[in-house]
Amino acid sequence: MATLKAFCRAESLLFKNLAVHRRASLNFASHQLSKTCGCYFSTSSLRGSQFYSNPTEAVKDIPNGATILVGGFGLCGIPENLINSLLKTGVKGLTAVSNNAGVDNFGLGLLLQTKQIKRMISSYVGENAEFERQYLSGELEVELTPQGTLAERIRAGGAGVPAFFTPTGYGTLIQEGGSPIKYNKDGSIAIASEEREVREFNGRHYIMEKAITGDFALIKAWKADKAGNIIFRKTARNFNQPMCKAAKTTIVEVCINVPKSYSFTGRKHFYACFCIYKKKENRNIVK
What we know:
Layout: H1 2-26, H2 33-36, E1 50-52, H3 55-59, E2 67-70, H4 80-89, E3 94-97, H5 108-113, E4 117-122, H6 129-136, E5 141-144, H7 147-159, E6 163-166, H8 173-176, E7 180-183, E8 189-192, E9 198-201, E10 204-210, E11 214-225, E12 230-231, H9 240-246, E13 247-258, E14 275-278, E15 284-286
Parallel strand pairs: 1-14, 2-3, 2-11, 3-4, 4-5, 11-13
Antiparallel strand pairs: 6-10, 7-8, 9-10, 11-12, 13-15, 14-15
């Protein structure tokens, strides 16, 4: 009870100080307070969601050389309309983090065909012949990562954890270093993976893996409301949810938009994404 009273006093003091500060220096309109303070004890401000009717408009700010986190598992839950829109913007030199590399004529495979991706950080890449050709000929950098490790690296990035230890990969090229990331034209290794730090815990060896964060996350969801809260559809949640948290800006392609008053009670999978794109044939996108 004492703790609750202390929180209430702190809350009251917080809003009182905000109100005084706003009147004295910034003279903001009163309705902007709710936009500035998204959560009483949040460490960052909450930005309002933006809705787009054109997917190209939603991704046009992605610059050359950006790191993008692309959701999906195989072809389940991939943001295909956002990926197609990157073809139109012509952005180059991308580092793409995704469990898969798409297939030859769908998903990230389309960006590989136009050579817009410089480096792939992936787990499973076995269904894309163009991916294989570019990698072996030295045109593409590839950082292969065990699937569970990839998922945890992304989750850690979203949680603000810079690195963690895992037993996966100990005693392999992942731990020892030297795994080819990029080949030269003659087949020699141009870029090799780095050796991992090793620690022993309770008699078992672990290697250190660094977290993954991105400039933009391209996500596929099922429903979104006007506040940017989203729900994923069953197994299509996969890598999409942790990627939302690990990127500076999240762009979400959604299937259904619902009114702001729509109740997501107990079902929200992610809160207040920044951008939402709504497509004509009932495909929508959130940023």
